[in-house]
Every structure is written in structure tokens, then in C-alpha cells.
Amino acid sequence: MQPEEIKALLEQQIANSQVEVSVDGSHVNLIVVSPAFEGLNPVKKQQLVYGALSDQIASGLIHAVNMKTYTPEQWAAQA
User: Fold this and answer.
1) Which residue from 77, 27, 78, 70 is spatially nearest to 48, judged by alpha carbons?
2) Cβ 52 vs Cβ 9: under 8 Å
3) CA nearest neighbour of 43 among 17, 69, 64
4) CA of residue 48 relative to chain centroid, distance
5) φ, ψ of residue 10 in degrees (nearest 5)
6) What is the mean pLDDT, run by run of 10 residues, along the chain of 79 residues?
7) Residue 4's Cα: distance from chain center in Å?
8) CA 53, 26, 19, 3 torsion: positive or negative?
9) CA-CA distance, 56 to 50, in Å (whole number)?
């Protein structure tokens, strides 16, 4: 999959998200920032992202995902 396709898919599935994607073969690196992550623990955040990509993972289009998830406040604190 192309990075733009993954970005569009995640931005459609996760409300008000901003997504950065890099792809190395079937390995995907993500940074996802969304207010949808408010109040969620890290595992729940990952489950939200994996849920959006479940069809692509199941089909083998995406083999491995490395993600960093942030609320907008957490993302702002990174800068």
C-alpha cells in the first residue's frame, strides 16, 4: 500500500486525526494524532488504529505496524 492510501484510510476511520505515514516494504510506521485518543490507555489507542487497518493486515498488504499515538495536547508537548 502507498503511504497516501494508509493516511486516507486512517483519517477516515479515526475522527479528526492527523496521520504521518512512512512505508518500508510491508512495514508501516505511523504517527497518529487525534482527540479520539483522549482518556484512552496506550493499548486502547493501538486497538483503534489496528481496527482501522484490520482488512489490510489480514490480507497481508500490511505485515507490521509501528505506531506512536498522541492526543493533540500530547503532540503539542512533543514539540
Assistant:
1) 70
2) yes
3) 69
4) 8
5) -65, -40
6) 93 96 91 97 96 93 94 92
7) 12
8) negative
9) 10
Cα atoms in the Cβ-side hemisphere of radius 13 Å centred on 60: 0
Residue in the block written with cell 502507498:
2
Q: Are 15 and 51 in contact (CB under 8 A)?
A: no
Give the angle subtended at the CA of 58 by the CAs of 5 and 71, to the nearest 5°: 55
Tell me which CATH code domain 3-27+38-74 carries: 3.30.300.90
Global model pTM greater than 0.85: yes
Residue pair 66/27 in contact (Cβ under 8 Å)? The answer is yes
CA-wise closest residue to 32 among 47, 43, 24, 21: 21
